[in-house]
Each structure stands twice: as structure tokens, then as C-alpha cells.
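Example: Clp protease.
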Amino acid sequence: TAARFIRASPFQCLENSKADITIYVDGIAASMASVIALCGKPVQMSRYARLMLHSVQGGCYGNKDEMKDCIREIEALEDTLCEMYATRMGKDKEEIRAMYFDGKDHWLRADEALALGLIDGIYDADPVPEDSTPEQVFQIFNNRLHKPQNENSMNLDELKRRPRFKNCATDDDFLREIGLLETEAGKVPALDAEVTRLKGELKVFQDKADADDAAARKKLLDDAEQDGRIDAATRPIYENLLAKDR
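Written out as C-alpha cells, the predicted fold is:
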């Protein structure tokens, strides 16, 4: 039972955290693990996973008074666990005690846990047989920890939705397209440099054209004023007309 106090501390840490901590139940959350799962914000459960609730188990050694103390401790722990489950499920504590603390192991599928309010959602995973025993479920999910998950197909399916990869049928097809993308990406810095150079040359050309145009307008006005066609008073009018006529 002392171990249960130790395992209750993660519950307190997670429950009291101000962060939204998502908990995923991938395989089996049994006994105290099912309690820790309660503090997920939210808690998501694989469609093929299992929760298990049962009475507190423990052992002690000593005289009759020590035995009685052990029983009182177990009963106190059960009362606390009943309150935790009841709070999560929106039920009365005594109702929870009668349902799940009767000395038996109670295994719950994801849909059952969701209906009871123990979890917030269900996500898909590779299926396991519906009639699997708890030991078989544990072994299936434990094996997955020791081999790569089949994420490659999912990623390829996602790529196929993009026009660039829609005609890819094999891994080699995907790799070839990715190689082309890498080649194209490698050209980007050079293209950026070329664009910058051309913009610079264009500005020089525009600046020179503006300067030449301004000089030509000035000469035209100077000549007109010199031969008496315009004077200093009318010159601004013609300057504006020439500027608008560019």
C-alpha cells in the first residue's frame, strides 16, 4: 500500500498543474495507472486500449493490531480512490464503491470509458481482436514498443494528396520527386542573388533616365526663356506641363 502513496504523487503533480497535459492511453492503464489517467487535460484513449479498475490490494505482516491498521489504511485508500473516480464520472462515491471496489477486476473498453466519463475522446490505432484477454492486449502493445510503428504509409498517403506526388506509386518515385525538389531548392539562393542584381541595375537605369529627362526639360525651358518665348513668371507653368507630359 505504501507504493500506492508513491504512485499517487504523480496524480497530484498532474492534477495541480496549470498546464493542459494531454494523456494518451495506448495499451493498458490498470489499477493506479487508471487513476493517473483521470488527470489528463484531456485524456485520449486508443480505440483498442483498456482501462482496469479494482479494489486496493496490499499485504502486511505482524500482530492483530498491525493487521487492523493495514486494513484501515486500505479502506482509507479505497475511499480516496472512490472519490477520485466519482469526481471524474459525476457519480456518488458509494455508487462507485459498489460498482468497482467489489474485489473483482473491471476491464473497460474505450467506448465504455467514454460513456462513463473516464476519458474525453477516442483515437484510432492499429486494431486488436475484440475478444483479446488483458494479457494479450498487454503483449500486443508491449511488442509495439520494440518495433517501429507503420508511419511510412501514412506519410506517403499524405504526400499523394499533393499534386506534385499524385502519380507516385513506389518509394523510388517519391525519392525521385524529393530529389528534384532538393535540386530546385538549391537553385533558390542563386535566383535570389540574380533578382537582387537585376533590381539594382534597373534602379541605376531608372535613376539615369530620370536625370536625363530632368536635364532635357531644363534645357528646353532655358532655351525658351532665352529667346523670349517664355519668361520667369510663366516658366513654372511650363515646368508643370512638361512634368505631367512625361
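The beta strands are 23-25, 28-30, 43-46, 50-53, 106-108, 121-123.
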